[in-house]
Amino acid sequence: MSYVANRLSVVKPSASMAASMAAKALRAKGFDVIDLGLGEPDFPTPRHVTEAAQAAALRGETLYTASAGTVELRTAVAEKFKRENGLDYSVDEITVANGAKQIIFNALMATLNEGDEAVLPAPYFVSYPEMVKLLGGVPVTPVCGADTGFRLTPAVLEAAITSKTKWLFLNMPGNPSGAVYSEAELKALGAVLAKHPQVLILSDEIYEHILFDGRTFVSFGQACPELRDRTLVVNGVAKAYAMTGWRVGYAAGPLPLIKTMNTVQSQSCTSVAAPMQAAALAALTGPQDCIAEFRTAFERRRDLVVAGVAEIPGLTLPAPEGAFYAYIGCAGLIGKRTPDGQVLETDTDVSNYILNSGHVSSVPGTAYGVTSFFRISTATADAVLVEAIARIKRAVAALKD
Fold first, then answer.
1. Does domain 6-44+290-397 have CATH number 3.90.1150.10?
2. Around 318, how many Cα atoms within 13 Å sit in the side-chain half-sphere?
3. Which fold has domain 47-285?
4. What is the rounded distance in angstroms from the CA atom of residue 269 to the CA atom of residue 264?
5. Which residues of the chain have pLDDT under 50?
6. pLDDT of residue 27
7. How far apart are CA 123 and CA 101, in angstroms?
8. CATH 3.40.640.10: which residues of the chain?
9. Lower CB count within 10 Å: N or C terminus of the chain?
10. Are 49 and 243 in contact (CB under 8 A)?
């Protein structure tokens, strides 16, 4: 007897979670492992946010809410989009879910028909293609390499679109690359999309506040207002406010799309837990000092890792423009032999070697659709990153031609 639905045969588990589990398994055997597989801030959630959730629970706000989220939270989200992104949405054009991932899942569940295509520029977030496949869609994954700054170009976009294209996904700053799009670059993509009215745009802006070198964030919706009726802007409180475990994401989009997403949610998880919504409300409407504090720390850590990787022969790392990852090129290690004679044939081999020899957990670049890279999270203490880079350096130095 099989307990697995046929549709799951094409879906892989989360690569970043798998890397973290491998690190935990090695740690359970007594090894000192640095886990840089999962991407989440190491800072505590701001105290006023935690207190808001506690106060809401003590007030009795522990019942169901509207599937789309409380009016108060959706109002705060609408005000955030207007204040920070120049986007004007009504409360009914806002939806709240259990993290940005569920927002994306709901959108795909609500719109994808069997065989519909979704253009996912690679490197992409590991869950994008798996969600598309799970819901009967076909991922189209044009490679956007280091030569374009890991950014999608208009020519590559045009070549990827077919009559079956339903969605284009943009992620900025990008996970795993940290790539950021300028307003001009977004407008150029918008000009291509204007010629293909069947294509919806999902702009995943969850790392919006984690930008480096004085960059200013521009939302796709802000750059291309003429595509408003086809654009879903996705965001959440997880990264900006160190709230990954609170599971609150939100999105703004055209009312017909938001309504269908709410229908999906009403028949699945119903809604986000009420105290979690109170916490997200406090995050969006309370003091914002933590955003600048976190960003400063993330930029310092970025610089530390970039400098460290530059001293390791065979590895490359263009300075990420945002987010908190290092997408490290390892083409220079492919073909080398480990001390026990194993040939490193893929980036998965490299990632496994760094884990087993250097005791540093990473995610192979193949999981993001581009080979000869591996990703580490830089969202951890400076001292931990220094030690991790030192371990990687020793492991690489032990390789033989």
1. yes
2. 14
3. Aspartate Aminotransferase; domain 2 (3.40.640)
4. 9
5. none
6. 82
7. 17
8. 47-285
9. N
10. yes
**Single-letter residue type at 137:** G
**CB-based contacts of 38: which residues, under 8 Å, 6+ apart?**
16, 17, 19, 20, 377
- Give the separation between CA 236 and CA 180, rounded to whole angstroms: 18
- Amino acid (one-letter) located at 130: E
Write the CB contacts of 366 (distance below 8 Å, at least 6 apart in sequence). 346, 347, 348
Residue 195 identity: K
Cα 20 to Cα 367: distance, rounded to the nearest angstrom: 14
Q: Which helix (H) or strand (E) segment is 289 a member of?
A: helix 289-309
- Identify which of 124, 65, 120 has the alpha carbon closest to the alpha carbon of residue 95: 65
Strands 231-236 and 200-204: parallel
The per-residue pLDDT for range 72-90, each reduced to its tens digit, is: 999 999 999 999 999 999 9
Q: Is the peptide bond before 320 cis (omega within 30 degrees of 0)?
A: no
State how beta strands 34-35 and 360-361 pair: parallel
User: Residue 218 in contact with residue 183, Cβ under 8 Å?
Assistant: yes
Residue carrying the six token digits 């690569």: 15
Report how far Cα 79 is from the mean position of its chain's Cα atoms. 23
H helices, E strands: number in the chain: 13, 12
**Structure confidence at residue 17 (pLDDT):** 72
Query: Which residues belong to CATH 3.90.1150.10 in the chain?
Result: 6-44+290-397
Locate 106 and state its tokens.
């709901």
Element (H, E) at 326: strand 325-329
pLDDT at 390: 98
**CA dihedral of 270, 273, 276, 281, whole degrees rounded to 10:** 50
